[in-house]
Design a protein that fits this description.
Family: Belongs to the cation transport ATPase (P-type) (TC 3.A.3) family. Type IIA subfamily.
InterPro entries: ATPase_P-typ_cation-transptr_C, ATPase_P-typ_cation-transptr_N, ATPase_P-typ_cyto_dom_N, ATPase_P-typ_P_site, ATPase_P-typ_TM_dom_sf, ATPase_P-typ_transduc_dom_A_sf, ATPase_P-type_domA, HAD-like_sf
Pfam families: Cation_ATPase, Cation_ATPase_C, Cation_ATPase_N, E1-E2_ATPase
CATH architecture of the largest domain: Up-down Bundle
Shape: elongated
Number of domains: 4
Domain Cation-transporting P-type ATPase N-terminal: 2-76
Number of helices: 32
Helix content: 40-55%
Structural class: alpha+beta
Distance between the termini: 79 Å
Organism: Sediminibacillus halophilus
Bound molecules: adenosine-5'-triphosphate
């Protein structure tokens, strides 16, 4: 027997699961251990040894190793071994950096891995999809990706988009009844859900019958495209730049070698020096450090509750100039409480806070509970998916807070689960943000049928023919106006409004969706408050200072939206609120003409969001767009930074996004932007540091050769400098804190090159000075003691290292070195201190003196070194450039 031929009870029995309670946690754990995780077979991991060896595959490093080998064979053991060791240490550093980046990327992947909604020990919980086992009872709702193969046990208007498996992009309706047929292809198994396919509408429950490679998707897993390596635009740009720098470094090195040979230096000596210089000057470590800086930044973002799904978003975040944010849940708490209810002719005020069910209904300060009010709340409870559950001793809502609010209000009227137990749902037309309404067809215990529709008042009014005003009667235009006025009054107080209507249906009949939602009888309108999140007002103000415009997008009534936007100080006095209906009538051009002055989009559907993104982009903006539903995905994808909600978001929205907000909070977007700006600045900082250091190294050699001097630095020294500068200090710059004014600058233009804002000038000017002061140290010492080349080289070596270690502090700001407190970045202080200590060891430790051709220096020498090495930094500290 196939799963689709079995009845649901038979399936459950076969798989040993209770359809009410699901599996126990213990049983699930046993099964997971026995059958393995619910994953498709992974790509093969590259072995660590290979990753390590990869560090040495660089052409110049190979030439250096070969040259060292030759010099070793010629008898220069110490030099050869020292160079080998330095190259090896460099390799280790590269290896660890790569591992670190790899690990944090893997962690990221895990954090953004999909979740499944399963019932364990009688409770619905969200678990990582990989922990789903055969027999698990599972819940699927519109927007979810199916985590395993499932035999359906319940379905409410459930439709699946199965193109991932079958190639067919039209949604397929699903049902529960067994299929009494022989061999069926997956696309015909209408009571089965398959791993990797997408729920596009409705909801359902089912039992997992296959996981991992034992799924229909597992059978074709070998056909699946392998995950691509993610490279960000910046990494790409740097890789390109790296190639150019290699050519420049090689040409300059060649130049140094040729002049050296021309000036009479032995060819062999110049060759080794040249290769060492090339290895030192080529910024081969740059892409790895960029990845490390990006991933470290990403780690910091995780602490702030923002998960980056695409590394490229980190860079784009720094350029964001508009944030289009959902209102409900992102700017507000999404904790709704019904405060007012209007039934034609009567106003009621509802007391009680939050989800506390203590409260009562007042009309003109008199506690009341008329029949019509009670029916409205009863119907609101029937047309409802949420449930009230105890969380940590407090009552909370499982499901949509809007619906939860109605349940809480109904409790205040004495309506409980028992009250509604005798009603059965025959059919449901689910809520979505496009329709702005939901409808259920109900049958009571006497077989009477009626339907209930609840939704946005304007949407319902258009489908209303009757009202109840003491008794049921036709709605006149005066009634409609009164209701609209009531809605406007509620909305003006920032209340979200939901109307409830009913319609009786002949028993036994199941009319189509259209007739169910036609000629309704309107019972009334509820108004619920959803307080703004505390931190959002500050975050919006901070964005404003940072040149970023915040735009509210909501399905709510324009007046509700306006009231909340004003409360959040998002809407300036002359700012405009645009409604979905107006938006529909505008072309993209017309919209982009006015969009700069629009701050709130109300009563919009997800389709409008795409138009909004495009209009802003047309104006040259870099747009961040939030979303949570299936229909939000196209806009999320089209925006420059797609943002989805970790809690309330659907899988589809998450997959389309590049940033996931774990707490669904607007303020988190602001933190992520701040971090994004900082990461980019930190990358610029260490590019500046590394390249200026390299320029200094090449120039000192070049100048010395041009002046017919001996080599100011020997190969081991050059390599050592490279090791120390490329290592800890550069990494520490990647960990630098943002500058105070990072959120007071305009967004960075996405067109801006790496060297813009004077970075190129800084690299060359500082590099030039570092080279010059090193040369001066060398020449001074050499002139004093022409016989003691070792002394002069030690002086040059110490000055070069010190100049770089001082210059690193200058790299922390685009402004003067004095603008920042050096003690603020303790990593950097530590890195510089340990590099200095290493320098002292190399200078004063006897055995290493042999290796590095160094010697003891006197206090006088140190005074000169300190004075010279401070020049490149201090001199520019007083200028603006
Ligand atoms: P955003 O999250 O973008 O701010 P929203 O939550 O304000 O959007 P929707 O959820 O699309 O927007 O709601 C739009 C309107 O639909 C609401 O103003 C309300 O009148 C109605 N509505 C919301 N939720 C429900 C529901 N569960 N059932 C019936 N109607 C609803």
């Amino acid at each position: 027997m196939k799963w689709y031929q079995l009845k649901t009870e038979e399936t459950a029995q076969k798989l040993g699961v209770d359809l009410e309670k699901g599996l126990t946690n213990q049983e699930a754990e046993n099964r997971r251990r026995k059958m393995g995780a619910n994953v498709l077979e992974d790509e093969k991991q590259t072995s660590l040894l290979l990753v390590f060896l990869k560090q040495f595959q660089d052409f110049m490093v190979l030439v250096l190793l070969a040259a060292t080998l030759v010099s070793g064979l010629l008898g220069e053991y110490i030099d050869a071994i020292a160079i080998m060791i330095i190259v090896l240490i460099n390799g280790f550093i590269g290896f660890f950096q790569e591992q670190r980046a790899e690990k944090s990327l893997a962690k990221l992947k895990e954090l953004s891995a999909p979740l499944a909604h399963v019932k364990r020990d009688g409770e619905w919980v969200k678990i990582p999809s990989k922990d789903v086992v055969v027999g698990d009872l599972i819940k699927i709702a519109s927007g979810d990706r199916v985590p395993a193969d499932v035999r359906l046990t319940k379905a409410g208007s459930l439709e699946l988009e199965e193109s991932a498996l079958t190639g067919e992009s039209l949604p397929v309706a699903k049902m529960v009844a067994p299929l009494d047929q022989g061999q069926l292809e997956p696309q015909d198994q209408h009571n089965m859900l398959f791993m990797g396919t997408l729920a596009s509408r409705g909801s359902g429950e089912g039992v997992v019958v296959g996981t991992g490679m034992n799924t229909a998707m597992g059978q074709i897993a070998s056909l699946l495209v392998k995950t691509e390596q993610m490279t960000t635009p910046l990494e790409k740009k740097l890789a390109e730049l790296g190639k150019l720098l290699i050519v420049i470094a090689l040409l300059l090195t060649l130049f140094v070698v040729l002049i050296g040979v021309y000036q009479g230096h032995p060819l062999y000596q110049m060759f080794l020096a040249g290769v060492s210089l090339a290895v030192a000057a080529i910024p081969e470590g740059l892409p790895a450090i960029v990845t490390v800086a990006l991933s470290l930044g990403v780690q910091r973002m995780i602490k702030r509750k923002a998960i980056v799904r695409k590394l490229s978003a980190v860079e784009t975040l720094g350029s964001a100039s508009v944030i289009c944010s959902d209102k409900t849940g992102t700017m507000t708490e999404n904790q709704m409480t019904v405060k007012e209810i209007f039934t034609p002719g009567n106003w009621y005020h509802v007391t009680g806070e939050g989800y506390d069910t203590n409260g009562a209904f007042y009309e003109d300060n008199r506690e009341v509970l008329p029949d019509q009010l009670r029916s409205l709340l009863l119907y609101g409870t029937l047309c409802n998916h949420a449930s009230l559950i105890k969380k940590k001793g407090k009552l909370g809502v499982d499901g949509d807070p809007t619906e939860g609010a109605i349940l809480v209000a109904a409790r205040k009227a004495g309506i409980t689960d028992e009250t509604v137990a005798s009603f059965k749902i025959i059919k449901e037309v689910p809520f979505d943000s496009d329709r702005k309404r939901m409808t259920v067809l109900i049958e009571d215990d006497k077989g009477n049928r009626f339907s209930i529709t609840k939704g946005a008042p304007d949407v319902l009014l258009a489908r209303t023919a009757f009202i109840v005003d003491g008794q049921r009667r036709a709605m006149k235009s005066a009634d409609q106006m009164k209701i609209e006025q009531a809605v406007a009054r509620m909305a003006g107080k920032a209340l979200r409004t939901i109307a409830i209507g009913v319609k009786s249906v002949p028993s036994g009949q199941t009319p189509d969706d259209f007739s169910l939602e036609k000629d309704l009888t309107l019972l009334g309108v509820t108004g619920m408050i959803d307080p703004p999140r505390k931190e959002v007002r500050g975050a919006i103000a901070e964005c404003q200072q940072a040149g970023i415009k915040t735009v509210m997008i909501t399905g709510d009534h324009a007046l509700t939206a306006r009231a909340i936007a004003q409360d959040l100080r998002l809407l300036p006095a002359n700012g405009q609120v645009l409604e979905g209906s107006q938006l529909s009538n505008m072309t993209e051009e017309q919209l982009s003409d006015v969009i700069e002055n629009v701050y709130v989009f109300a009563r919009v559907t997800p389709e409008h969001k795409l138009k909004i993104v495009k209009a802003f982009q047309k104006k040259g903006h870099v747009v961040a767009m939030t979303g949570d539903g299936v229909n939000d995905a196209p806009a999320i994808k089209a925006s420059d930074i797609g943002i989805s909600m970790g809690n309330s978001g659907t899988d589809v929205a998450k997959e389309a996004s590049s940033l996931v907000l774990l707490d669904d909070n607007f303020a988190t977007i602001k933190s992520a932007i701040k971090e994004g700006r900082n990461i980019y600045e930190n990358i610029r900082k260490f590019i500046r540091y590394l390249l200026a250091s390299n320029v200094g190294e090449i120039l000192v050699m070049l100048f010395a050769m041009l002046l017919a001097l001996p080599l100011p630095l020997i190969p081991v020294q050059i390599l050592w400098v490279n090791l120390v500068t490329d290592g800890l200090p550069a990494m520490a710059l990647g960990l630098d804190q943002p500058e105070q004014d990072v959120m007071r600058r305009k967004p960075r233009s996405p067109k801006e090159g790496i060297f813009s804002r004077g970075l190129g000038f800084k690299i060359i000017s500082r590099g030039l000075l570092i080279g010059l002061v090193t040369l001066v140290a060398f020449m001074t010492a050499y002139q004093d003691n022409p016989d003691n080349l070792r002394y002069a080289q030690t002086m040059a070596f110490a000055t070069l290292v010190m100049a770089q270690l001082i210059h690193v502090f200058d790299c922390r700001s685009d402004r003067s070195v004095f603008s920042r407190n050096p003690l603020q970045n303790l990593y950097l202080v530590g890195a510089v201190a340990s590099s200095m200590l290493l320098l002292l060891v190399v200078l004063y430790f006897d055995p290493l003196q042999e290796v590095f051709h160094t010697m003891d220096l006197s206090l006088k020498d140190w005074l000169l070194i300190t004075a010279l090495s401070a020049i490149p930094t201090v001199m520019f500290g007083f200028s603006k450039k």
